[in-house]
Amino acid sequence: MSRYWSQITKRIKPYVPGEQPRDRTYIKLNTNENPYPPSPRVIEAIISEAGEVLRRYPDPQCTALRQTVAQYYGLEVEQVFCGNGSDELLAFSFLAFFNPGTPILFPDITYSFYPVYCTLYHLDYELVPLDTSFQVPVEKFFEVNGGIVLANPNAPTGSCLPVSSLRDILEHNLGSVVIIDEAYIDFGGETARPLLKDFPNLLIIQTLSKSRSLAGLRVGFALGHQELIEGLRRVKDSFNSYTLDRLALAGGIAALEDDAYYRDTITKVIATRERIASALKDAGFFVVPSQANFLFLTHPAAQAADLYQQLRDRGVLVRHFNLPRIDNYLRVSIGTDEEMDIFLGCITELVGAAR
Ligand SMILES: *Cc1c(COP(=O)(O)O)cnc(C)c1O
């Protein structure tokens, strides 16, 4: 704490990202990165943009990338907004659409960045407890609120609500903005995109970080009614006009254009997820059904904190959240088949030893 800090800086409780250790090489299953490289066309596009043109500012409206996204999903370019990763889009959205006073609703177990934005912006929030099987209790989101944020599929559980439930939530909340964070939607969940035409209060946030293997490039986009998009632009242009650089814009477009590569990648991740989930269940683990690129698991005879450390000692890095209700669970990102076989070998041996 420094006396020179502003009141806000003293108040905030920053998000703690998953570690990116440099002390040794780990099998890294802790931040839901994609184990496969980005499309070669992304690399080509970035290399060809990396020239004299960097002298010039990028397009502050991200027009070409927005057109690519709009065309990809059959939307109007006015319904698309691009950001420096979806975290930035969330940061802008909380400021653009939520007010102090009436609480923002989100689940008690979800992406832990949401409460951080609330504290930053002085927004009140109410945690809605997931049920005992970690499912979202839909009716709890019908009560009066100042806005709703749902990760769908949820993190760190991997569970996904069907579109019918999202429609229900939107119909009960025509007076507030409902943000659906679809960071993991490409791994098998049902997207809320078909609801965009019916609900001017729906904002969908997606990212190229997970399904397009581009966590390092920082490209996300929001989809919503033209007026919500205009709200995001007002906030962005009050912070920083050039949130996406030229390399990110070029790489993002190329990623969406190489659809065959993307489909191949997610097919592999999903197949690995299903194979490992069933092997873990055979080994006595409880595994939450996942529609994301990670698994959330617990073992009745082992302490998750111990497993985390023992896996780490063996060079396998997973995520353990020391939080109420989930402190005996591990979140394990889906790696390559080879990486997951090593993980599986280690963890089954560890719980065998723990019995
Ligand atoms: C990874 C993740 C994000 C952030 O993704 P970026 O686009 O890399 O900023 C947002 N929401 C959820 C739920 C995530 O898991």
Can you offer a commentary on this structure?
- With 355 residues, this protein is of the alpha/beta class.
- It folds into two domains: 7-37 and 260-354, Aspartate Aminotransferase, domain 1; 40-258, Type I PLP-dependent aspartate aminotransferase-like (Major domain) (Aspartate Aminotransferase, domain 2, 3-Layer(aba) Sandwich), CATH 3.40.640.10.
- The protein is 37% helix and 13% strand.
- It has a seven-stranded mixed beta sheet with strand order 2-8-7-6-5-3-4, sandwiched between helices.
- Helix 2 runs antiparallel to helix 8 (246-257), helix 4 (85-97) crosses helix 5 and helix 9 (259-282) runs parallel beside helix 11.
- It is globular, with a radius of gyration of 21 Å.
- The chain starts with 6 loop residues before the first helix and ends with a helix.
- The model has no long low-confidence stretch (mean pLDDT 96).
- Pyridoxal-5'-phosphate binds next to helix 4.
N- to C-terminal distance: 45 Å
CATH architecture type of the largest domain: 3-Layer(aba) Sandwich
Task: Write down the Rg.
Answer: 21 Å
Mean pLDDT: 96
The small molecules bound here are: pyridoxal-5'-phosphate
Largest sheet, in brief, is: 7 strands, mixed
Order of SSEs: HEHHEHEHEEHEEEHHHEEHEEH
Overall 3D form:
globular
Number of domains: 2
CATH class identity of the largest domain = Alpha Beta
